[in-house]
Amino acid sequence: MPYEPPTHSVERSLRATTGAKIVAGVDEVGRGAWAGPVTVCAAVTGLRRPPEGLTDSKLLTPKRRTALADVLEGWVTAHALGHSSPQEIDELGMTAALRLAATRALEALPVRPDAVILDGKHDYLGDPWKVRTVIKGDQSCVVVAAASVIAKVRRDAMMAELGMEFAEFGFCDNAGYPSPVHRTALEALGPTPHHRLSWSYLDALPRWQHLKRARSAPEALALEAGGQLGFDF
């Protein structure tokens, strides 16, 4: 399906209205997974013409994503990854875990951004960062699209590595998201140390319900429900 390529429009607007010189794009992956970290990439690109084919990582084939991520890591001005572990997600709740991962990514950049473009409509980052939220920013903004592709490819690689140790769970293919293989392995073997134990998938596994942890922070259940009923890869 044809799609409009991303632009620097939002970044130019931020520069013009706030005086920001360094603008970072931030995107996350792994929010709806049952296993693995939530991963955030912060990227800085400047206003250069992006590599051909750049768009939201979800619109790209795995092969194209991987090839583009390799190009992007050499093309961006700077990028950094931040992660929140399954244990931190269980302890803090997803919103705070996202904030922690994003802060880790932003603080790992070699330069501190003056402003941040955050994919989506909710600002989970907050002070002290100057944030502009953009719905579908991973498709419309160059800097967010770049972060989207790098985050997705690098987290998938992490999960594939875990899949070598926990082959029955199919992490190489599902990256920790819901899938029939993943569910079957959970029913038979129970959660690994890399599973989120506050997630509602455990409600459907009577043998392992005793492992479920109560959420330490209130969270909207829509993400879990979506992750349980749909296979979002």
TrEMBL record:
Catalysed reaction equations from the record: Endonucleolytic cleavage to 5'-phosphomonoester
A Gene Ontology term for the protein's cellular component: ribonuclease H2 complex
Cofactor: Mg(2+); Mn(2+)
Coiled coil: none
Positions bound to a divalent metal cation: D27, E28, D119
One GO BP: DNA replication, removal of RNA primer
SUPFAM superfamilies: Ribonuclease H-like
Principal location listed in the UniProt entry: cytoplasm
Pfam families: RNase_HII
InterPro entries in the cross-refs: RNase_HII, RNase_HII/HIII, RNase_HII/HIII_dom, RNaseH-like_sf, RNaseH_sf
Localization per Swiss-Prot or TrEMBL: Cytoplasm
Spans through the membrane: none
Domain RNase H type-2: 21-219
Function: Endonuclease that specifically degrades the RNA of RNA-DNA hybrids.
Family listed: Belongs to the RNase HII family.
The protein, known as: Ribonuclease HII
Organism annotation: Streptomyces albireticuli
